[in-house]
């Protein structure tokens, strides 16, 4: 399950920052499927495997692998090992 660690909204879970960024972390059982919804249409997501392995957008990622996803509204991830850990950073893709 993903847990929000950081957000630009002071009433959200986690730490409040003055940026259009969200950070989520999670630890998953083998076979767990999660759909991460990107927070804004201008944003993309950087997904980093802390440990274990995942299938993300059809690609297998192992410990310390990462993938960037943009021009989409959500990203599907599947945990391939028990105790797999993921970090997701949701940020604007273009500087204003």
Task: Summarize the structure in short.
The protein has no helices and ten strands. With 96 residues, the protein is mostly beta strands.
Explain this structure:
- The chain is an all-beta fold.
- It has a single domain, classed as Jelly Rolls.
- It has strands at 2-7, 15-16, 22-28, 33-37, 43-51, 53-56, 59-62, 66-69, 74-79, 84-92.
- The strands form two sheets. It has a six-stranded mixed β-sheet, with no helix packed on it. Strands 4-9-6-7 form a four-stranded antiparallel β-sheet, with no helix packed on it.
Layout of strands and helices, then pairs:
Layout: E1 2-7, E2 15-16, E3 22-28, E4 33-37, E5 43-51, E6 53-56, E7 59-62, E8 66-69, E9 74-79, E10 84-92
Parallel strand pairs: 1-2
Antiparallel strand pairs: 1-3, 3-10, 4-9, 5-8, 5-10, 6-7, 6-9
């Amino acid at each position: 399950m993903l847990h929000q660690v950081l957000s630009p909204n002071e009433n959200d879970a986690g730490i409040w920052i003055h940026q259009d960024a969200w950070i989520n972390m999670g630890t998953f059982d083998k076979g767990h499927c999660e759909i991460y919804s990107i927070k804004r249409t201008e944003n993309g997501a950087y997904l980093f495997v802390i440990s274990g392995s995942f299938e993300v957008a059809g690609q297998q990622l192992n410990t310390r692998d990462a993938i960037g996803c943009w021009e989409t509204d959500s990203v599907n991830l599947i945990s391939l090992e028990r105790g797999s850990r993921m970090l997701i950073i949701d940020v604007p893709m273009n500087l204003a």
